[in-house]
Design a protein that fits this description.
Layout lengths: L5 H34 L8 H12 L4 H12 L9 E8 L5 E8 L2 H14 L3 E3 L8 E6 L2 E6 L3 E2 L2 H15 L4 E6 L1 E2 L4
Parallel strand pairs: 6-8
Antiparallel strand pairs: 1-2, 1-3, 2-7, 4-5
Helix pairs in contact: 1-2, 1-3
């Protein structure tokens, strides 16, 4: 008679649906933060990128609390009153591929441990300052700072699967904004 509990079935379905919603809300929150940062304003009338992100939030029924949190984070304010800081983590993934992970956080210790946990679960290691950054060149495109690999590093198919799961784990973290890598592989 296992598997016949109505409550257990409801709980499992609701848990799966909530996980999907949470992922979508996280992505939209990131869009809102980026739009506020790039536009420099929390006024949707003068910031078209923000207006678009807010429309997406409304269509997915994102709670107002989450929207306000993303707006504040984009302006450099945190809900606890602490300062928001930008952090750049340097790491190495499967096959020795270098990673630069940009994060915006109000608690650097929490974000550091989350990034380290995601890396260790996916055959990656967090490294010290300057250990991977020299493999990238800073480039400014349309007023935005980006990192371009100096010498891309090819990886094989087995490493590619592990590397893609590492990227997914890092992208799922709320504070991670951008990930740059020296990996060179074909996407499916």
């Amino acid at each position: 008679m296992s598997g016949h509990s109505k409550w257990n079935n409801i709980k499992n379905r609701k848990g799966a649906a909530d996980a999907k919603k949470g992922k979508v809300f996280g992505e939209i929150g990131k869009l809102i933060r980026i739009a506020v940062k790039e536009g420099g304003s929390v006024d949707p009338a003068s910031n078209p990128g923000l207006r678009l992100a807010l429309e997406k939030a409304r269509t997915t029924n994102m709670p107002r609390v989450n929207i306000d949190r993303a707006l504040n984070k984009g302006m450099g304010k945190s809900s606890t009153g602490g300062a928001i800081q930008e952090v750049l983590y340097e790491a190495f993934g499967p096959g020795g591929v270098a990673l630069l992970i940009e994060a915006v956080t109000d608690n650097a210790n929490r974000t550091s441990s989350e990034v380290k946990f995601a890396l260790t679960r996916n055959q990656g290691t967090l490294s010290g300052p300057g250990s991977a950054q020299f493999l990238f060149q800073k480039v400014t495109e349309a007023g935005t700072l980006r990192y371009v690999p100096v010498q891309p590093q090819p990886i094989d198919e087995q490493q590619q699967e592990t590397f893609e799961s590492l990227l997914d784990a890092l992208k799922d973290l709320e504070d991670v904004e951008e990930i740059y890598t020296t990996a060179q592989y074909e996407t499916a």
